[in-house]
Amino acid sequence: MPELPEVETVRRGLAPALVGATIAHVELRRHDLRLPFPERFAARLQGRRVLDLRRRAKYLIADLDDANSLIMHFGMSGSFRIDDETPGDRRPSSGKIAAHDHVVFHLDHGKRVIYNDPRRFGCMLLVATDEIGADQRLSGLGVEPLSDALDAAFLAGAFRGRAAPVKALLLDQRLIAGLGNIYVCEAAYRARISPLRAAGSLVTPGGRPKAALARLPQAIKDVLNDALKAGGSSLRDHRQTDGSLGYFQHSFRVYDREGAACPTPGCKGTITRVVQSGRSTFHCPACQK
Questions:
Q1: Domain count for the chain
Q2: What is the Cα–Cα distance from 13 to 140, expressed in whole angstroms?
Q3: What residue numbers bound the domain in which 99 lies?
Q4: Which of 159, 164, 165, 216 has its C-alpha lying 20 to 30 A from 13's C-alpha?
Q5: 20/123 same-domain check
Q6: Sorting pLDDT into bands at 50, 70 and 90, what band is 218?
Q7: Would you call 58 a catalytic residue per the annotation?
């Protein structure tokens, strides 16, 4: 599933084409994705101008000029691309299969934004803009990991007294919104914290963050920003809006590197894979404590 850097990369790629544009019409090539499209979805979007395109966790939100917002989630395999309008052209670009081009937004300036989703686990919703904060999908989300709200004091409060593993809490979208398996593994490595460690053990009896926990917020932000600079990670389906791959996967230090030597200078450890709650966790037992 695309994580925060992949979704933010797509947002940045789509914004120049979408923000300020008017949706001339919407072409639906099926009646649903993971969920049915909202009633009169195409008709309600026709003629609407896009005022802004923002991200909340792993959701893209396009604010429209009728006080509604289009909320989009990529699911497991969804991606967007921008093409020039060619009448009658159903050919995909960048190796995509046209049969999986399920939604086409035709814009007034001659471009089209195409949503491709082989597994159809994505979704698109229309919600009143001033009610987004109360929407059941977004209301319970935690802090944005790139915001100032994510600091050592916040993590100490969230971790205090918790026996759950560090990784489980970092993946809890009610605490931190948008982090996924790849970047949690990478951030824990950079902070030299074992993802298996009980979260509460990183907090003093008085509720203050220990040294290791104090390193974690910056490690999270650094790995996310590095991934953004690289256009995200392309392991299966992620593409940027021009069809190019992200390349942060070439910079993984622990993720998917089982059996490799630990890249920490002077460490003689080996990257190990374990399974936590059905997900692969990669870490170095020698230097992540």
A1: 2
A2: 27
A3: 4-134
A4: 216
A5: yes
A6: very high
A7: yes
